[in-house]
Amino acid sequence: MKEKSTDILLKVGEEKLLRFSYSDELGIYYEIINKCKIIKRKIIFRNSFKYFFVTLDVNRNINLVCQDEVGNIILCILIEGKWKYKILFHMKYNFITPIKAKGFFNKKELKILFNLDSDYKNIYYSDNYKSLSTIYNDNNDIDIDYDILENYKYVSLIINSVSFNIYKLIIKNFNKDDNIWSNNEIIYISRKDYIDKSYCLVNNKIHFLIVTQEENEKLIVYKNITLCEKEELTRETIIFNDENIDSCLIIESKEVLWTFWISKNKLFGSYSVNEGEDFSSPLVYKIFKNEDVRKIKFIEGNKSREVYFYEEDGKIRLFLEDILKVNEVKFNINYKSISCGLDIKDEKIIDNDKIKKSKEFEDKQRKYTINY
Question: In terms of C-beta density within 10 A (0-12 exposed, 13-18 middle, 19 or more buried), how is residue 321 classed?
C-alpha cells in the first residue's frame, strides 16, 4: 500500500465529487467525478507550489489556500462557479521556501496556520492576515507534520514530532469561544516510527488509532481523549496484532465507531458501540487482489474524514463507503454480534457467527449542492 494521498475529495452531490490535486505540469487543479467516473478537469492555479488546503466557508463556498511561485499565500474562493483570488500574505524573504498552509473558520473568519519546509520547529498562526504568532515550537528532527480536526467548539492539531529518536504524537487545542490555544499535550510516545495513524473527532472526544512496531510484530493501538477544561486521556487498547499491517483508519458512522486496517491484502474491521470502551472481534470485510489501495481526505458538508479508495478503469472506487452504507443496524453488546446490510456485490466477505447479512436498503442522506 502506498502512502496517504495528498489529494482531497469533496462531495458536492448525491453521486458527484470533486478531487483536488497537484501536478508539475498543471499546478493545482480539480477533477469533476460523476458516478465514480472522472468526466472533466479544470485548473485552479497553474503557477503554484505543491501544497494546498481545502475547506468550506459558512456559505458553503469552496476555499482553497495555496502558495504562488513568488512565495505569497493565496486564497482561492469558488463563488457561483467562478474562482476569485486574494493574496493573504506577501512573503518578504531573501529566498523562497515552500510553505504548508492550512486553515479553519471561526465566527465566519478564516484562520491560517502554516509552517515552512526550511523550519522544523515552528507552526505559525494568524487570525487577521496581518500579524503572526508562534503556537508551536519544539526541537524536531523532521519536517513538521500535523492534521486538523474540528467541531463546533474546538479545533485540534495532531502533531507528529520526532526528537532524539523519540516519536511523539502531540495534541494542541483551540477553543473557538475563547479564541485561545491550549498547551501541548503528549498523546503517544514510541521509540520507533509509526507505521500509520488515523484520528476522528466525535462530539468532544478524539479517537486515535495507531499502527506501531513492537519487536517482531505490529500492533493496532486505540486510545481517546475527551476535550474539556480538564482533558482526560484513556488507557491504550490493543485491538489487533500481526507481523504484517500496512495501514489503519478510524471513523464514526451512525453512532458506531469503526476501526479498519489492511493486513496481508485483507481489509479487517472492528467496531464499538460505547465510544471506544471495548471493541468487537475483528472480521474480514474485503480481500484485495492487485488494487493500489490508498487513503484520502474526504469532505462532506462540515465534516471531513479519511477513506480508503483505489482507481480502476478510470473510476474512483470508494469501497469503504459501500461497506458502511447501512441503514438498519442491531447490536447485541453482551455477545458483540452485529446484524447489518452490506453491499457485497463482488466483494468477498469471510462470515462467522458474529455477523449476519440482512436486507440492504437505500441510505437516506442529507442532500446539498455546491456550484463548481
Answer: middle
Burial class (CB in 10 A: 0-12, 13-18, 19+), 176: middle
Long-range contacts of 235-241, Cβ-Cβ distance < 8 Å, separation of 24 or more: 237/276, 237/278, 237/279, 239/209, 239/270, 239/279, 239/282, 240/268, 240/270, 240/282, 241/217
Whole-number Å distance between alpha carbons of 188 and 173:
16
Are 30 and 21 in contact by the 8 Å Cβ rule? The answer is yes
* Residue 183: C-alpha distances to residues 78, 102, 343 (Å): 35, 20, 45
Q: Please state, in angstroms and as integers, the Cα–Cα distance from residue 116 to each residue in 18, 50, 191, following that order.
A: 28, 13, 26
Three-state secondary structure call for residue 95: coil
Q: Which residues make beta-bridge pairs with 84?
A: 77
**Sequential DSSP letters for 358-372:** ---------------
- Across-strand partners of 287? 266
SS3 273: coil
CB count within 10 Å of CB 99 equals 22
Question: What is the Cα–Cα distance from 139 to 17, expressed in whole angstroms?
Answer: 40
Alpha carbon distances (Å) from 156 to 97, 153, 170:
26, 10, 10
Question: What is residue 46's DSSP assignment?
Answer: S
Q: Specify the DSSP element, H or E, that contains 147.
A: strand 145-150
Residue-by-residue DSSP string for 167-205: EEEEEEEEETTTTEEPPPEEEEEESS--SEEEEEEETTE
* Helix runs in 302-344, H state only: 319-323
Q: Which helix (H) or strand (E) holds 326?
A: none
The answer to whether 211 touches 261, Cβ cutoff 8 Å, is: yes
Query: Residue 371 — very low, low, confident or very high, per pLDDT cuts 50/70/90?
Result: low
One-letter amino acid of 224:
N
> Per residue in 150-201, pLDDT tens?
998 999 999 998 888 889 999 999 999 999 999 999 999 998 889 999 999 9
Give the residues across from 368 on adjacent strands: none
